[in-house]
């Protein structure tokens, strides 16, 4: 069964259109189950009716033109129940409804299973027999398994309007195709898309229209010849160690590259309008799918040979291509399958209008960086046909997590009004820069910033930041191809400390692992978020930890504004060990003659174990900072980077709010500083609740700071405490956000944080 399921899924995935994919399903399932009828009904999103989209056994001429109402027939019964219906004689069932013109009257037995994707019923897969007999458990299990496998394929094809061949007519402007993702960074961006991708990865190469056929073909042939030469050199180097049969494998590689086979197909694709890299991807993937469907294991293995050749050709093509920065002549919307911090680092910031990532969630590090830079961003757009969106006009709605392709003039006009209103809000924020963050009744709240880039310094100071609550040292580690030296680190940290002196700068020790990888220090684990990360890595590598500690302390010479923060603390022993090493590093630097003071040391509270030991931790350190991002992730057991469960990640979950409140209660008499440096602090709604709980320092991205200040300066502490008392009794995260939205509207402060038109756009 597994091999049959795999072959059917592969064929469906390779289909060039949704109708073709559906036809493959009904044809293959009918044959596999020896059924007389196999049909697929899909739900019309507008009418909620079940439309007969494909069939083998019924009258195929009526497919696409007849349907069952949402409460009509056995098919809709399957959809309403969201579970299989298996009947020996369908026609005597009270829900049976005959669809005229299908020829269904002959068939008695009925098995229908729902096609479900992310809790949504997309349609129903049906098999039927003429005689009266119940389908057995094995047949039912097969159909359920196949339905689950195909649900994602059908959902993607529906969402993207089905896969279309590049040579098909271009989609006209004004189509307003809408795709849903996860809000990553608020704001609206209107502009052309630019698809970016990691090098030498054939699977992520986008389609891109070209009219320079001759140049693309010439580049392709040059890459082809370079690969031929590579293969000949490899053959000559090791030929003396190979038998004649083994040497013949190199000849096979050269034959695959022959003009009359694959190379000729690629040239034809280029002449049809695709650039060389896109044409290469199309042809290589089509041949790989053919090999994968073969029963012979030897022939299936040839797919890996073809994939290797494709990557080799691609690598040579990319050597001639302009680098990523040269592709941007104007500000654009950056699109990628999985955007990374290093990708963004290669693009001039002034050329980035918006970001769209197919993978990731609102709390991925790319989203956090986007918020820091004030770039509208949508993450987790799983059904977006990103490879087809190079140079396509787009709208990115970072408030609602939506992307519109080929937008109409009317939609562009609506969103342009939001952009204009955002600009007015920014002007209002400008006057707040030098004013204190203080409530109407005199409660003072300190607003710090989270940084990781040198460019953050000026931006943060311009927005009135009172210090740095979190400097992410992993960022300068990530943009290099080796560990930075101690001297290099001193220069990096000195820049941050000098930029904010005499205000405090909290520098976090290296926090890698989980979703933060160093290319030169890979950590491969089955469950990286519960593995080797944060303080666990650095305590295991004293050479890394001590170099960093000494660099931080040296960088603070004469300034004395350094605070050191330890990430991912899960027990008291880790803190005791780290403190001993920090004192040792301080003594070493002091002996070298630097004018330094022992820095304050604090820990991040981001693991549930730390919440329950916060009192003991407070007795050891000078300050505590709650990392609400990871604390939310670990309390809710939700990977914050996984778009499939992104809707479960919510910092306003009652469990998170209660944990945050309990931390304040446990350390109120300990005399330690207490702050929040997660994304919750930069959410005006979250800032109100945190202030009411008793946190007096909030650290956030520089773009969030003016919004938080505007809100805090327009309410009283008493109002904030009333809001907190109202939501702490609630049992649903949605109820918390809805209640807070209502209370903020009643207090007339919601208008300060987002354009009023955002709720009125489709």
UniProtKB/TrEMBL annotation:
NAD keyword on record: no
This protein's record includes keyword Cell wall biogenesis/degradation: no
Pfam families, alphabetized: GAF, PEP-utilisers_N, PEP-utilizers, PEP-utilizers_C
EC number: 2.7.3.9
GO CC annotation, single: cytoplasm
Keywords: Coiled coil, Cytoplasm, Kinase, Magnesium, Metal-binding, Phosphotransferase system, Pyruvate, Sugar transport, Transferase, Transport
GAF domain segment(s): 17-164
Coiled-coil residues: 217-244
Protein's cellular compartments: Cytoplasm
InterPro entries noted in UniProt: GAF (IPR003018), GAF-like_dom_sf (IPR029016), PEP-util_enz_mobile_dom (IPR008279), PEP-utilizing_PTS_enzyme (IPR050499), PEP_util_C (IPR000121), PEP_util_CS (IPR023151), Phosphohistidine_dom_sf (IPR036637), PTS_EI-like (IPR006318)
GO biological process, one term: phosphoenolpyruvate-dependent sugar phosphotransferase system
Name of protein: phosphoenolpyruvate--protein phosphotransferase
Catalytic activity: L-histidyl-[protein] + phosphoenolpyruvate = N(pros)-phospho-L-histidyl-[protein] + pyruvate
Family named by the database record: Belongs to the PEP-utilizing enzyme family.
PROSITE patterns: PEP_ENZYMES_2
Cofactor(s) required, per the database record: Mg(2+)
Superkingdom of the source species: Bacteria
Top EC class for this record: transferase
Principal place of residence: cytoplasm
């Amino acid at each position: 069964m597994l091999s049959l399921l795999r072959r059917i899924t592969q064929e469906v995935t390779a289909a060039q259109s949704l109708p073709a994919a559906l036809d493959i399903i009904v044809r293959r399932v009918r044959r596999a189950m020896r059924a007389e009828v196999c049909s697929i009904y899909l739900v019309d999103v507008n009418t909620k009716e079940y439309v007969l989209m494909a069939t083998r056994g019924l009258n195929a001429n009526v497919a696409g033109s007849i349907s069952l109402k949402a409460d009509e027939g056995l098919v809709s019964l399957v959809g309403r129940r969201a579970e299989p219906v298996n009947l020996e004689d369908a026609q005597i069932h009270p829900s049976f409804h005959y669809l005229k013109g299908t020829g269904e009257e002959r068939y008695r037995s009925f098995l229908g299973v729902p096609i479900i994707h992310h809790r949504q019923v997309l349609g129903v897969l049906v098999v039927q027999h003429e005689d009266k007999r119940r389908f057995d458990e094995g047949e039912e299990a097969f159909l359920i398994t196949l339905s689950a496998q195909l649900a994602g394929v059908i959902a993607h094809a529906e969402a993207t309007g089905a896969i279309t061949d590049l040579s098909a007519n271009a989609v006209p402007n004004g189509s307003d195709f809408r795709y849903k993702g996860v809000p990553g960074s608020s704001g609206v961006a209107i502009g052309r898309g630019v698809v970016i991708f990691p090098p030498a990865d054939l699977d992520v190469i986008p389609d891109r229209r070209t009219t320079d056929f001759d140049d693309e073909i010439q580049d392709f042939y040059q890459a082809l010849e370079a690969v031929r030469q590579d293969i000949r050199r490899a053959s000559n180097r090791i030929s003396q160690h190979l038998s004649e049969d083994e040497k013949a494998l190199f000849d096979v590689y050269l034959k695959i590259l022959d003009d009359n086979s694959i190379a000729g197909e690629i040239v034809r694709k280029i002449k049809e309008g695709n650039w060389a890299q896109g044409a290469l991807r199309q042809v290589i993937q089509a041949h790989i799918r053919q090999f994968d469907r073969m029963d012979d294991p030897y022939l299936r293995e040839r797919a890996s040979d073809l994939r290797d050749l494709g990557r080799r050709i691609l690598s040579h093509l990319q050597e001639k291509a302009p680098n990523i920065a040269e592709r941007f002549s104007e500000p654009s919307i950056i699109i990628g399958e999985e955007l990374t911090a290093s990708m963004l680092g290669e693009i001039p910031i002034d050329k980035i209008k918006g970001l769209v990532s197919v993978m990731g969630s609102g709390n991925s590090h790319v989203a956090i960086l986007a918020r820091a830079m004030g770039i509208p961003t949508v993450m987790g757009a799983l059904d977006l046909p990103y490879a087809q969106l190079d140079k396509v006009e787009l709208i990115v709605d970072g408030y609602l997590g939506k992307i519109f392709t080929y937008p109409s003039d009317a939609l562009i006009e609506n969103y342009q009004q939001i952009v204009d209103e955002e600009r007015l809000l920014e002007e209002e924020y400008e006057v707040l820069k030098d004013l204190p963050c203080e409530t109407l009744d005199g409660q003072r709240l300190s607003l710090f910033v989270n940084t990781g880039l040198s460019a953050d310094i000026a931006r943060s100071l311009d927005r009135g930041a009172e210090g740095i609550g979190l400097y992410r040292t992993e960022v300068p580690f990530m943009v290099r191809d080796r560990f930075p030296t101690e001297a290099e680190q001193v220069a990096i940290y000195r820049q941050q400390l000098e930029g904010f002196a005499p205000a405090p700068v909290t520098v976090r020790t290296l926090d890698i692992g989980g979703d933060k990888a160093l290319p030169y220090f890979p950590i491969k684990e089955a469950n990286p978020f519960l593995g080797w990360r944060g303080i666990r890595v650095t305590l295991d590598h004293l050479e890394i930890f001590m170099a960093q500690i000494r660099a931080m302390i040296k960088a603070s010479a004469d300034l004395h504004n350094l605070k050191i923060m330890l990430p991912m603390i899960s027990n008291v022993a880790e803190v005791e060990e780290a403190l001993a090493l920090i004192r040792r590093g301080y003594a070493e630097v002091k002996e070298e003659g630097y004018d330094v003071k022992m820095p304050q040391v604090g820990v991040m509270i981001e693991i549930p174990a730390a919440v329950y030991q916060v009192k003991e931790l407070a007795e050891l350190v000078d300050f505590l900072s709650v990392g609400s991002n990871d604390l939310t992730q670990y309390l809710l057991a939700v990977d914050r980077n996984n778009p499939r469960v992104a809707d479960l990640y919510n910092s306003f979950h009652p469990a998170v709010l209660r944990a945050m409140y309990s931390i304040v209660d446990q350390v109120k008499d300990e005399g330690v500083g207490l702050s929040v440096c997660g994304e919750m602090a930069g959410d005006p709604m979250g800032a109100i609740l945190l202030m009411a709980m008793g946190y007096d320092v909030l650290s956030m991205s520089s773009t969030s700071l003016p919004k938080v200040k505007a809100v805090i300066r327009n309410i009283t502490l008493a109002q904030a405490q009333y809001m907190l008392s109202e939501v702490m009794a609630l049992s649903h995260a949605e109820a918390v956000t809805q209640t807070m939205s209502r209370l903020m509207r009643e207090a007339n402060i919601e208008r300060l944080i987002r354009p009023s038109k955002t709720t009125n756009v489709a």
